[in-house]
Amino acid sequence: MSDTNKKVVTRFAPSPTGFMHVGGVRTALYAWAWAKKNDGTFILRIEDTDKAREVEGSIAHIMESLKWLGIEWDQGPDIGGSHAPYLQSERLESYKKYANILIEKGLAYPDPYTKEEIESFRKNAEDEKKVFLFRDHRPEKFGVWNGTQPLRFKVPVVKSYTWMDEVRGELSAGPEALDDFILIKSDGYPTYNFAHIIDDLEMGVTHIMRADEFIASTPKFLSLYEALEIIPPVLVTLPPILGKEGTKKLGKRDGAKDILEYRNDGFLADAMVNFLAFLGWNPGDERDVMTPLEIIESFDISRIHKSGAMLDEEKLLWLNKEHLKRQSDEVKLNEVKKHLPDYPEDLLKRLLPSIIDRISVYSQIDHIESTEFRFFIDSPEVDIEKIIWKDETKDQAAIHLEEVKRLIESGDLSSVENVNKLIMPYAEVQGKGSVLWPLRYSLSGQEKSIDPFTLVYILGKEESIKRIEKVLEKLT
RNA sequence: GGCCCCAUCGUCUAUCGGUUAGGACACGAGCUUUUCAAGCUCGGAAGCGGAGUUCGAUUCUCCGUGGGGUCACCA
């Protein structure tokens, strides 16, 4: 177990092989939250040791995704830090240094075989229904490594390992999990198995957060830590995130979305952080809507789940609405403006609560605007037949509209409540439907819409009367 | 297949041996100021199966079942 007095250092170490998806971001979020919670350091390190799979623009995409969510790193490739560089491709000297230490100890050796030879070893093992282990073919005498062959780790002791994981508890694996894996590839770049251990050591990483696909290779890491006489960091295994069917782990291949797609769809960063945080963790009380700050304060490794969870976009939508509701009116207005640029600002201000009620994500405004709000700025087309409430007559509708018009002309329209007080008594006497349906329909031209009092309040005296008069002309 | 991990309402989860098994999403019903939306109230809904340990198991142990991960010159 590591020194608990030591300053917490965590890292997020993605490979630049494509877009960021929920799984990666969740890992980053937990590492970040744990560092923040402990006034520690959060490092962004790019594991770009596979030049063949590297995707142009990935690093920028990773950074943009993290920044969107407010997951800011204290050290990283763009801002540097006390352990620079933060690109593994620029840290080759470090790996070479430790490789030489292992060679000197007789714990690393050049792989003398061709790929074809290894492939046939593998095939033979398969035919005999045995696990293929390179160490069964380990040469008796090691040659001198010239840098063009893969450098392999010589597992010092083949044994079963048992270790502590902060989330899973005691874990173990059989000796088959241990093999002479490659430390440095023939192209001179290190493998993940080797590089992350050296970097974590040099950068003083205290806690490794990563998903459970790494459990199987942990004995390899442990064996290497021992060979290098390194005290391993605290291991924190995160639960998998399952796809829609709940059967497969969510990966890029089976529908995991680019995290920035959520941003493009209008989701709020705080809602996304809240959602991601709860995908494998919860504060233990009954809170479900939390700000990033509250999440950091409550975050605890002991409350990270063991079992995987399905990603439920329905819940994300609900969460986004909750976060959206909590924003200030100023922010809300600004966001709404972006979607309704041709609406006058004073109208928008009065319309704001009604809009907020109807959406979970700001971008939904684009979809409902034409049917639900358009009539506020474009006078509605009124079908005179629809103005009639149930089996009443046009004359009755006209009488009620006349009276409502009279009330509006002299009444106080300064709030929805006041409009209600103004018209409601009359409607209650005459029949709510008889009065309110013609009113609401005259103002909106819609069979379904916001309630009539809010309508009058939003449209204002002048416009409301104008619309009522227009209908009255048609009625008589 | 070998090795390993996981297992509570449809979904996400709480419970650290004793609870009417709690909450949230979704769903259903009702309420409210015509309709729609929102909101509020109520409701249905769960411990994978089998042994054991124990006065008592959702909780601890084992077996089974189901699901997942991993067996690369990928991370």
Structural overview:
The chain has 476 residues and is mainly α. Among the domains are: 329-376; 384-475, Arc Repressor Mutant, subunit A. The chain is built from 17 helices and eleven strands. A three-stranded antiparallel sheet has the order 3-4-7. It has a two-stranded parallel sheet with strand order 1-2. The chain has a two-stranded antiparallel sheet with strand order 5-6. Strand 8, helix 6 (218-227) and strand 9 (234-238) form a beta-alpha-beta unit. The model has no long low-confidence stretch (mean pLDDT 94). The structure holds one RNA strand of 75 nucleotides.
- H-E string: EHEHHEHEEEEHEHEEHHHEHHHHHHHH
Distance between the termini: 88 Å
Q: State the shape.
A: elongated
Spatial strand sequence of the major β-sheet: 3-4-7
Oligomeric organization of the protein chains? single chain
Q: What is the mean pLDDT?
A: 94
CATH architecture of the domain at 384-475: Orthogonal Bundle
Q: Could you say what the CATH topology of the domain at 384-475 is called?
A: Arc Repressor Mutant, subunit A
Structural class: mainly alpha
Tally of contiguous helical segments? 17
CATH class of the domain at 384-475 reads: Mainly Alpha
Helicity level, as a percent range? 40-55%
Largest sheet: 3 strands, antiparallel
Give me the count of strands.
11
Rg (CA only): 33 Å
Q: Please report which band the strand proportion falls in: under 5%, 5-15%, 15-25%, 25-35%, 35-45% or over 45%.
A: 5-15%
Query: pLDDT under 50 segments (min length 5)?
Result: none
